[in-house]
User: Fold this.
Amino acid sequence: DIVMTQSPDSLAVSLGERATINCKSSQSVLHSSTKRNHLAWYQQRPGQPPKVLISWASTRESGVPDRFSGSGSGTDFTLTISSLQAEDVAVYYCQHYYSPPFSFGPGTKVDIK
Amino acid sequence: EVQLVESGGGLVQPGGSLRLSCAASEFSFGTRWMHWVRQVPGKGLVWVSRINTDGSSTDYADSVKGRFTISRDNAKNTLYLQMNSLRAEDTAVYYCGRENWFIDLWGRGTLVTVSS
Assistant:
């Protein structure tokens, strides 16, 4: 089974500043058949269900602000919020969809400094 | 509106059973693989189970294998999770999700509490 880890556990960033979250998988999620990284990022605001922000490690979903970007390949991935806004306060999770079980990372809580 | 609505949660005693439902609206339910994900309040997301379009293929997390059964009724646009032999550690909000390789649509969840 693939184990997902994230760092840091939490971070506080000033409004307008950059936030960077890291995600690591215990084995590569770059699939030989699709030639793509089977890695998604989700945002969960307080009291809300998760919402997908990024799929395929770097594809921003429709309607997601362009201040959110994803990068990485293989086992190491990054979610970057280029200019933090108040509405970005949330917990962010990475998840692989390479093969079952489709585990999530433990989450990174983002707050305003 | 395209949405998923879970129901069936509640308080159940350890060892008991519960069946969750997830009603899908305004999309072609029968063409989409579906998932259940759970979350202990204040904790992280945990993937539980997945089912293919016609129900012939299912996957489970080790923690629920043999106790939980995922199923679907495409005529009713409804996903189910039958939960047996429930334990205190199964207490969580249960979300259903629509697959687009990743989970691209989530319900709002239903709370299951296992306690005597």
In short: Residues 13 and 116 of chain B are 5 Å apart (CA to CA). The two ends of chain B are 39 Å apart (CA to CA). The mean pLDDT of chain B is 98.
